[in-house]
C-alpha cells in the first residue's frame, strides 16, 4: 500500500473496483456482519488471538494513511457493497463513489428451451427442478447449510429435485431432503447455461455477497431466483417480478418461497421471462463497458457526464 500509492503522480485519478470488502477492512474479505471496520478494526473475531492492536487494526491503519491524499474514486457492483465502502474510514477521503453492476455477454448467456435442456441432462420433463451453485459449496457465507435446512420444507413434495453446481460436497444431514444431484465444477459457459435453463428456480442462500454472478447467469437463462435479502442479491431479485426473497438467514422462509414457486409454476415461468428482460436492460456487458468509459472520460476532464456533484452516482 505505502510504496504503491507513494509512486503515483500527484492527484492522478485512481479508480478502484471492489469485488469484496478487503480494500476497506483490516484484512477480511467479508466481515461476517462484524462492524469493527467502521471504527478501525482490532479485536478481530476472525483471528485466533484477537486484541485491540492486533494485525487487523495495524493493517487498517496502513491502508487509511496510504489513501489519505489519493485522488480516489470507488466503484462497486452492488448497492450493498457501495454502502459498506462508504462507512469505512479508509475511504473517508475518496472523491466519489459509483455503482457499476457487472455485465454479461448475452450472446453466450441466453435461454435454452427447457425441455431440450432437460433431455440433454437426462432430467425428467415434468419435474420441478431447482439448482444451487458456488465455486466452493462449503463456503459458509454461501449458505449451503441454510439451504439444506430450507429444503426440509419441500422434501416431501412429489417430483422435486435439485442440481448442485460447484466444487466440494454438501454436508450429510440426518433429515429427509429432495433428491440432489452433484454436477461438479462447471467451467464451460454453455453447460452452465444448459443447467440454468433446465431449472424452474435458482436458489441463492448467501448471507453475505457482493453481486453473485450465478444469480445473474441464471436470470439470463430465464430462471427466477429464490434467495435471501442479503448483500447485492436484492439488486436483481425483485419480489414477484424476477424471483422471491426471504429474510437473511431465515431458512424456513427460504423453503416456503421455494415451495411457493413449486405450487405456482406458471407464475415462476413468468418471473423467469421477466428476469431475462431485466438482464437485457440492466446487465449487458456493453452497458458495463460504457459506464466505465464515461467515468474514465469524466475523470480526465473530457466530459462531466456520469460524475455526480454529491460524490455519488448510480451509473445505470
Total helical elements? 11
* Radius of gyration from the alpha-carbon trace, in angstroms: 21 Å
Outline: globular
The parts where pLDDT drops under 50 for at least 5 residues are: 303-313
Name the average pLDDT: 93
The helix/strand series, from N terminus to C terminus, equals HEHEHEHEHEEHEHEHEHHHE
Number of strands: 10
What structural class should be given to the helix and strand makeup?
alpha/beta
Helical percentage? 25-40%
Describe this structure in words.
It is a single chain. The protein is an alpha/beta fold and about 325 residues long. About 35% of the residues lie in helices and about 15% in strands. Helix 4 packs across helix 6 (about 190-200) and helix 5 packs across helix 9.
Short description:
With 316 residues, this protein is an alpha/beta fold. Helices cover 35% and strands 17% of the residues. It has helices at 2-6, 55-67, 79-87, 114-121, 144-150, 189-198, 213-220, 233-236, 251-263, 265-282, 285-299; strands spanning 13-18, 71-76, 96-99, 128-136, 160-167, 180-184, 201-204, 225-228, 243-246, 312-314.
Amino acid at each position: 500500500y505505502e510504496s504503491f500509492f507513494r509512486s503515483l503522480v500527484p492527484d492522478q485519478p485512481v479508480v478502484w473496483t471492489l469485488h469484496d470488502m478487503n480494500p476497506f477492512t483490516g484484512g477480511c474479505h467479508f466481515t461476517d456482519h462484524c462492524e469493527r471496520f467502521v471504527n478501525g478494526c482490532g479485536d478481530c473475531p476472525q483471528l485466533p488471538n484477537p486484541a485491540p492492536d492486533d494485525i487487523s487494526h495495524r493493517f487498517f491503519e496502513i491502508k487509511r494513511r496510504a489513501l489519505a491524499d489519493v485522488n480516489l474514486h470507488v466503484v462497486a457492483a452492488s448497492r450493498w457493497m457501495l454502502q459498506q465502502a462508504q462507512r469505512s474510514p479508509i475511504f473517508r477521503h475518496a472523491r466519489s463513489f459509483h455503482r457499476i453492476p457487472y455485465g454479461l455477454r448475452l450472446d453466450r448467456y441466453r435461454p435454452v428451451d427447457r425441455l431440450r435442456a432437460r433431455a440433454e441432462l437426462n432430467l425428467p420433463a415434468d419435474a420441478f427442478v431447482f439448482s444451487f451453485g458456488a465455486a466452493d459449496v462449503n463456503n459458509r457465507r454461501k449458505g449451503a447449510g441454510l439451504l439444506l435446512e430450507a429444503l426440509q420444507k419441500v422434501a416431501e413434495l412429489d417430483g422435486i429435485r435439485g442440481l448442485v453446481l460447484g466444487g466440494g460436497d454438501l454436508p450429510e444431514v440426518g433429515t429427509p431432503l429432495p433428491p440432489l444431484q452433484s454436477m461438479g465444477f462447471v467451467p464451460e459457459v454453455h453447460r452452465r447455461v444448459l443447467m440454468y435453463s433446465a431449472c424452474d428456480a435458482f436458489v441463492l442462500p448467501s448471507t453475505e455477497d457482493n453481486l453473485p454472478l450465478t444469480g445473474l447467469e441464471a436470470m439470463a437463462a430465464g430462471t427466477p431466483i429464490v434467495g435471501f435479502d442479503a448483500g447485492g442479491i436484492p439488486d436483481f431479485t425483485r419480489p414477484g417480478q424476477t424471483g422471491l426473497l426471504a429474510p437473511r438467514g431465515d431458512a424456513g422462509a427460504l423453503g416456503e418461497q421455494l415451495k411457493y414457486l413449486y405450487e405456482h409454476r406458471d407464475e415462476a415461468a413468468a418471473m423467469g421471462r421477466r428476469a431475462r428482460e431485466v438482464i437485457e436492460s440492466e446487465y449487458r456487458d456493453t452497458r458495463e463497458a460504457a459506464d466505465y468509459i464515461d467515468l474514465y472520460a469524466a475523470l480526465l476532464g473530457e466530459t462531466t457526464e456520469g460524475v455526480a456533484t454529491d460524490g455519488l452516482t448510480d451509473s445505470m
